[in-house]
Amino acid sequence: MSDATLQADRARPPVSPFVERLKERLFPTPLSGLLSALGIAAALWIAFVLIRWAFLDATFTGTPEDCQQTTGACWAVISARWRLMFFGLYPYELHWRSGIAGLILIAVIVASCVPVFWSATRLALLWVVSFALFWIIMHGGVFGLETVTEEKWGGLTLSIFIFCGTALVGMPLAIVLALLRRSRYPLVAKVAAVLIDTVRSLPLVTILFTVSILLPILMPDMPLSKISRVILGMALFFAAYQAEIIRSGIQSLPVGQEEAAKALGLGYWHRMTRVVLPQAFRRALPPTISQFAISFKEVALVIIIGVFDFLASGNAAYGSGEWAFTYVEVYVFLAFVYFLFVFSLSRYGAYLERRMRVGK
Amino acid sequence: MTVAVSISHVDKFYGSFKVLHDVSLNVNEGEKVVICGPSGSGKSTLIRCINQLEEHQSGDIAVLGRTIDGQGKHIDFIRRDVGMVFQNFNLFPHMTILENCVLAPMLTRKTPREEAEAIAMQYLERVRIPEQANKYPGELSGGQQQRVAIARALCMKPKVMLFDEPTSALDPEMISEVLDVMVGLAEEGMTMLCVTHEMGFARQVADKVIFMDQGRIVETAPPEEFFSAPKNARTRDFLSQVLAH
């Protein structure tokens, strides 16, 4: 390299490293440069079409007729029908009760995620109180609140309620099943294993049919309502999978952990609750978060046994003639709400993992 | 002299493999016993039978006057008075050092937290790492972790301490810090059973040294005699190997 070119190199104005890197990645040769340019153009075009549809040309309020005059999305259906989607067939003038009840559950879910509440007694207290509150507000019949029977519950509030019930009944059941399957008594371990494997072999839909249709026929005096039976069925299903997740966490611990706890004289219960399970849950956190996400979305299956959940209410929201053409908008909205819930859950899982790594 | 640990005619099998053959051993209160032998000789299994991390099939084991009868509750009582230190430390990684130390006293002895923490700090000071109390085990070196493990066992105020190769997993430069703590403990009169290959330690503190091979106690002797005039040929073989370097 001659002195002259060296000089020229130095004289060149400094280029920011970001631009430099972009150039290197996207336009290394003429052919890949061309493909990059085409790709970028296509992406921009899709983004533009979507934005035009969703925002620029969209109708946000008004009647179905207002919508049909434009080519964009008809969000007016959401502002006209959001109450149906959130509250289902709950009496219109009492929607505030369903709203408050749903918010209580969401608040308690969020509170349960805060480490301050992480003790068995605090969590139990929190959930017992909130379920009692939920029942009083939702069902009424006390404190001068008008009674609204479970058949009229619906929408997002009901979906969240079924999910919370499933997780709350299912998680303790999962822990019990996981521990039983590791029992030192072969018979107990076998029974737990057969139970878990049986439930896992059944589709959730058959379990839902069994609890909603078969059970009342077999046991006509069944004191449980349909929604509670659905929750119990879903909890059983959840527990079968979650038990195996917890067990995998337990199996992954070094044997020395339980031995050290034994050597200190801790009894079985203390060994499990203080030493084994806390570590097993840390290790099994990623699949546990997945299981929660799956269960939240599986609630939508109750539509087939005639429970009016969020998805069913969404179907009803556009199903009534005048709004029939807005099904895309309704499903986009439903998807968005599901996304909000499950994506927050995933981010929370990621936060937990970071937080727990500190203690390792 | 009262007997702290009495083992008589104990047999132990893993499946059809016999790990312990008719082993008998008495350890008096305040006595320090070092058990050595080639790997697979059953020395770890023997001390793990004392707190029933391994169940024996025949023979009797009595600890501090209580015979082990296979009942879970009784075994828990015995374990509270018998501290154990493991090769791999086995600290609870999800708890701080202090929490590791107060867990068992608070749960099993119902010691109030303040008192349990005071006792824990006292023992952490004794193993010379009080400043690490609020760290997690993963943040400590191997030698520090093993010293915490000793402190954790001491917090239960045990009458007997079992050491299962406490220095075997340590880097060489950390072995002496752990041995120093053990020597200190021995000087205070703790009843100790140590499975170890640290012959210097055995010479310094042991009242008797036991050599095991193939599941049997081959030789028992005071250290001076054990090291200078071993009677058994296998003992001599073993000693020539461990003392060679």
Summarize the structure.
The two termini of chain A are 54 Å apart. Chain A has 360 residues and is mostly helical.
State the main characteristics.
heterodimer; A: 360 residues; mainly alpha; MetI-like fold; 16 helices; 73% helix; globular; B: 245 residues; alpha/beta; six-stranded mixed sheet; four-stranded antiparallel sheet; 9 helices; 10 strands
Walk me through what this model shows:
The complex is a heterodimer of chains A (360) and B (245). With 360 residues, chain A is an all-alpha fold. Chain A contains 16 helices and no strands. Chain A is globular. The mean pLDDT of chain A is 86. Chain B has 245 residues and is an alpha/beta fold. Chain B is built from 9 helices and 10 strands. Chain B has a 6-stranded mixed beta sheet with strand order 6-7-8-3-9-10, sandwiched between helices. A 4-stranded antiparallel beta sheet of chain B has the order 2-1-4-5, with helices on one face. In chain B, a hairpin with a 2-residue loop joins β1 (3-14) and β2 (17-28). The longest helix of chain B is centred in the C-terminal third of the chain and has 16 residues, at 172-187. Chain B is globular. The A-B interface holds A 254, 256-257, 259-268, 270, 274-275, 278-279, 282, 356, 358-360 and B 51, 53, 72-73, 76-77, 79-84, 86, 88, 90-95, 103-104, 107-108, 136, 138, 149, 152-153, 156, 162.
